[in-house]
Amino acid sequence: RSVDNSQPLPFRIDICVAYNVRRGNPLQKYHPADFALDKLKFNTTGVHVEGANHNKMTLIVKYAGFFCDVTGFDVHRDLFIKAVEKETFDAD
Fold first, then answer.
1. How many CB atoms lie within 10 A of CB 15?
2. Contact predicate 53/37, CB 8 Å
3. CA–CA separation, 43 vs 69, rounded Å?
4. Which residues, in sequence order, are bridge partners of residue 18?
């Protein structure tokens, strides 16, 4: 993702991940036996993984042009990813 230089940093991104399903909401059908984000491998640049548990994680973006790669998912299944950006990071 590109971040223009006028955007305040740091900011937070809340992410939910699940394997895609043919019917229904993938996030509601997530099961802990599918995967646990805290057990997978993260490769990041310009971002801090503040928390990762089950299928949810929080990223704190420190630098424009950040990168986050997570490996260890089943390569034969499609991922459904929902990311919600919070423009300014609150310490709450």
1. 19
2. yes
3. 5
4. 80
34 within 8 A of 16, measured Cβ to Cβ = no
Residues 6+ apart with CB under 8 A from 25: none
Which of 5, 10, 3, 2 is CA-nearest to residue 60? Answer: 10
- Calculate mean pLDDT across residues 53-66: 93
The residue with tokens 């509601």 is 28
Write down the pLDDT at residue 21.
96
Which residue, 25, 66, 76, 20, is CA-closest to 42? 66
Closest CA to 59 of 39, 19, 26, 89: 89
- Looking at per-residue pLDDT, the higher value among 73 and 7 belongs to 73
Average pLDDT, the chain: 88
